[in-house]
Amino acid sequence: MKQTHFLGILSLLAGITAVPLLIAFYQTGWGAPGTAVYERYELLNRLMAGVLLLMAAGWIGVCRLLLGYGRWAALLALIGVLTIAAGTAAEFWLYSDLPYGADNLRQTAFSIVGVGGCWILGRW
């Protein structure tokens, strides 16, 4: 199997996995840190970081297939997805015990997620 096919399969797996996670997000909502609702929200976000990394595999495959400007656009989108995954992982694995709305590393990690999203939107 070609490497790009394998990367595409990983990306499809991400899409299939993301749907039930997004449904669970909608049904769970989020609460204050320390509550049962928040613990489910935290778990879903930790799982979403893995899904984002699988999506990044698809972007790597796209980068390998495209030539010229399309390849650079895909590469920049890949950087955006990796940035979102890193911010999500930092927020929910490293700084999850810190409060929301404070000037702390959790807020910085959350901001990194937004930067990654803007990076993707700004490049397409």
Which helices and strands appear, and what pairs or packs with what?
Blueprint: H1 3-28, H2 36-65, H3 69-94, H4 105-123
Helix pairs in contact: 1-2, 2-3, 3-4
Description of the structure:
By secondary structure, this protein is an all-alpha fold. 81% of the residues lie in helices and 0% in strands. It contains 4 helices and no strands. The radius of gyration is 16 Å and the shape is globular. The model has no long low-confidence stretch (mean pLDDT 79).
User: Nearest-angstrom radius of gyration?
Assistant: 16 Å
Q: Count the strands?
A: 0
Tell me the helix content: over 70%
Runs in which pLDDT lies below 50 for 5 or more consecutive residues are none
Average the pLDDT over all residues and give the rounded result.
Answer: 79
Report the principal-axis shape.
globular
Largest sheet: none
**End-to-end Cα distance:** 30 Å
Strand content: under 5%
Number of helices: 4
The string of secondary-structure elements, in order, is HHHH
Given helix and strand content, the structural type is mainly alpha
Number of domains: 1
